[in-house]
Specification:
Number of domains: 1
CATH architecture: 6 Propeller
Helix content: under 10%
Strand content: over 45%
CATH superfamily: TolB, C-terminal domain
Distance between the termini: 38 Å
Number of strands: 27
Strand order of the largest sheet: 1-12-11-10-9
Largest sheet: 5 strands, antiparallel
Structural class: mainly beta
Order of helices and strands: EEEEEEEEEEEEEEEEEEEEEEEEEEE
Number of helices: 0
Radius of gyration: 18 Å
CATH topology: Neuraminidase
Length: 291
């Protein structure tokens, strides 16, 4: 399905910013992103120009995708009366991927390119979500088969490739860089989540030391990886993996933090939930960042 999709402005909505240190990642400054009167706000993807995509819920709790570019926000809604639209990834060309839920409750992936909205459904799948895209237009995500088992996928030059970690119960591909490296998560035979990196056909497991579960969500061209992990107490934190070293990313007074995307300058986007159970988006910027 291909339809013209327009951005509706959000002139009636403002956003509040606050600057906080990211605990355990001393070289980052975290900026909270909130829309006035709207909760939650979730930042999911970021390109090298600083354009951000994500999702927010309105006062009726309906989910809408958003694009933040050139200093203003726009709403991204699937043009089919969707009950929810979520934007997850964007590239340097301005292409955006994500998913929407139709009126029957089915999940569909989508690609928004040059103002044209296209549905991305893996043939025979009961659910499809498109979660990452690189500058070549390669899309990654996951789908569920008739047995409700999740498989990762890579859509490249019109060819659909299934991405399954060997011996995994489930696999989800979540991010891709311009070198074709893919990150995501898989669940082992006990259904425990682990992060993975796929490079040149070889899978590597990413587990934060001491974590009970790990998920990798984004990767940039230098090979830095972001995601989330759960500690022994059951608390969820964001992480940055850079040059073999893990750093924790926590929002201010957060009970949960997730890192979802990272661009080549090292800016990170994600979300955190505070002690009052409000969910905020965030942008974490390296202190040596040069626009």
């Amino acid at each position: 399905m291909r339809r013209r999709m327009m951005l509706s402005s959000m002139a009636l909505l403002s956003f509040a910013l606050g600057v906080f240190p990211a605990r355990g990642a001393g070289s980052l400054t975290l900026t909270a992103i909130d829309f006035t009167g709207v909760t939650p706000t979730m930042a999911r993807g970021l390109n090298n120009s600083g354009q951000m995509v994500g999702e927010y819920s309105d006062v009726t709790r309906k989910g809408h995708g958003f694009l933040f570019a050139a200093g203003s926000f726009g709403t991204l809604d699937a043009p089919s009366g969707a009950s929810r639209t979520a934007a997850f990834g964007n590239n340097g060309r301005g292409d955006i991927v994500g998913f929407y839920i139709d009126t029957a409750g089915k999940f569909h992936g989508f690609l928004l390119a040059n103002g044209i909205f296209s549905t991305l459904d893996v043939p025979g799948a009961t659910q499809t979500e498109a979660l990452g895209i690189n500058d070549a237009g390669y899309v990654v995500g996951f789908y569920q088969d008739a047995m409700r088992r999740s498989h990762g996928f890579l859509l490249a030059n019109g060819a659909l490739i299934t991405v399954d970690v060997p011996r995994a119960a489930q696999t989800e591909a979540r991010g891709i860089n311009n070198h074709g490296q893919v990150v995501g998560l898989y669940r082992d035979a006990t259904f425990k989540p682990h992060g993975f990196l796929l490079t040149g056909g070889t899978f590597s497991t990413i587990d934060v030391p001491g974590a009970t579960q790990t998920e990798a969500h984004g990767i940039n061209d230098p090979g830095q990886v972001v995601g989330l992990y759960q500690d022994a107490a059951g608390r969820t934190h964001g992480f940055l993996l850079s040059e073999g070293n893990f750093s924790t990313i926590d929002g201010p007074s957060a009970i949960r933090t997730e890192a979802h995307g990272i661009n080549n300058p090292g800016q990170i986007v994600g979300l955190y939930t505070d002690i009052s159970f409000k969910t905020h988006g965030f942008l974490a910027t390296p202190n040596d960042f040069e626009p």
